[in-house]
């Protein structure tokens, strides 16, 4: 997508052919800073500290982390150690493990002397595949937006509500939830996005708003508790969110607060869609509430806020009284019954086992292999 009019991906190889470039998303929206990853430790730290975030981008970064690891030690022991280090960085997003499994599957049969080249080749493929998948997700979701636009008066806008950042910053390019929005905008459909601020890290206010603004998409940042009110008053036509993991039965794990939006959407008969690439589907589990590990993050994300002062300084301040306890669950699970449909690279699917298995039989087969191996 675009940054100051220039097409940009979230992760790339630098001119030297091996250093990995990426955007420090912790610094947005106030500073645009490019960081160079030169070791597997750099890649692991980038994922762990949320320098990079979003399930697909985490997967791509982990893949490049494995390539960097092969430069350090391409032995079987080095391969196993790199996998273990990277898979431990974030527990919820399944794309991380998927990408690492892909890398290990590609590298294990290769002689150590050839593993560096093979690792960079497969990591690059994973990044390119993510772009193609997200572009296809956009085409699938565009049909939904076009159908809503057809019911509007000339010039009347389609209002989309989204939560957290499932934009191009969370992927390699295009985004998941934003891909249909960008394609609708580029097609000339009047479209407006309500972007939840998404406490406590404010990814909607800081990241989604930043990227929508750079692409020229009309948007409004709203407090997290506003979505239900907008739906009650007919101001939301469709909700589109992303996800970090979807179960074989269609339960959706996404940024904390998504479940509440789904409940409000159901109560107000607003269609609630989830946009996802197929690597986000975990065919090895069925009950999202009971089986998906929910990451609990540090208290400082809740107690502190960072912003730009009127005189241009970036400052962090505490907003919670000293001594108050904090619970900071990173994600929640929306049951499949609340999901109108899953927007995938192979079309819009029902959120159930039969539809997912029929659309992605090869992923089902891979999951069965993993279960047998374990």
UniProtKB/TrEMBL annotation:
<keyword id="KW-0396">Initiation factor</keyword>
<comment type="function">
    <text>Catalyzes the interconversion of methylthioribose-1-phosphate (MTR-1-P) into methylthioribulose-1-phosphate (MTRu-1-P).</text>
</comment>
<dbReference type="Pfam" id="PF01008">
    <property type="entry name" value="IF-2B"/>
</dbReference>
<dbReference type="InterPro" id="IPR042529">
    <property type="entry name" value="IF_2B-like_C"/>
</dbReference>
<dbReference type="InterPro" id="IPR011559">
    <property type="entry name" value="Initiation_fac_2B_a/b/d"/>
</dbReference>
<comment type="similarity">
    <text>Belongs to the EIF-2B alpha/beta/delta subunits family. MtnA subfamily.</text>
</comment>
<feature type="binding site">
    <location>
        <begin position="254"/>
        <end position="255"/>
    </location>
    <ligand>
        <name>substrate</name>
    </ligand>
</feature>
<feature type="binding site">
    <location>
        <position position="90"/>
    </location>
    <ligand>
        <name>substrate</name>
    </ligand>
</feature>
<keyword id="KW-0486">Methionine biosynthesis</keyword>
<feature type="binding site">
    <location>
        <begin position="53"/>
        <end position="55"/>
    </location>
    <ligand>
        <name>substrate</name>
    </ligand>
</feature>
<dbReference type="GO" id="GO:0003743">
    <property type="term" value="F:translation initiation factor activity"/>
</dbReference>
<keyword id="KW-0028">Amino-acid biosynthesis</keyword>
<keyword id="KW-0963">Cytoplasm</keyword>
<keyword id="KW-0648">Protein biosynthesis</keyword>
<comment type="pathway">
    <text>Amino-acid biosynthesis; L-methionine biosynthesis via salvage pathway; L-methionine from S-methyl-5-thio-alpha-D-ribose 1-phosphate: step 1/6.</text>
</comment>
<dbReference type="InterPro" id="IPR027363">
    <property type="entry name" value="M1Pi_N"/>
</dbReference>
<feature type="binding site">
    <location>
        <position position="203"/>
    </location>
    <ligand>
        <name>substrate</name>
    </ligand>
</feature>
<feature type="active site" description="Proton donor">
    <location>
        <position position="244"/>
    </location>
</feature>
<keyword id="KW-0413">Isomerase</keyword>
<dbReference type="GO" id="GO:0046523">
    <property type="term" value="F:S-methyl-5-thioribose-1-phosphate isomerase activity"/>
</dbReference>
<protein>
    <recommendedName>
        <fullName>Methylthioribose-1-phosphate isomerase</fullName>
        <ecNumber>5.3.1.23</ecNumber>
    </recommendedName>
</protein>
<dbReference type="GO" id="GO:0019509">
    <property type="term" value="P:L-methionine salvage from methylthioadenosine"/>
</dbReference>
<feature type="site" description="Transition state stabilizer">
    <location>
        <position position="164"/>
    </location>
</feature>
<dbReference type="InterPro" id="IPR037171">
    <property type="entry name" value="NagB/RpiA_transferase-like"/>
</dbReference>
<dbReference type="InterPro" id="IPR000649">
    <property type="entry name" value="IF-2B-related"/>
</dbReference>
<dbReference type="InterPro" id="IPR005251">
    <property type="entry name" value="IF-M1Pi"/>
</dbReference>
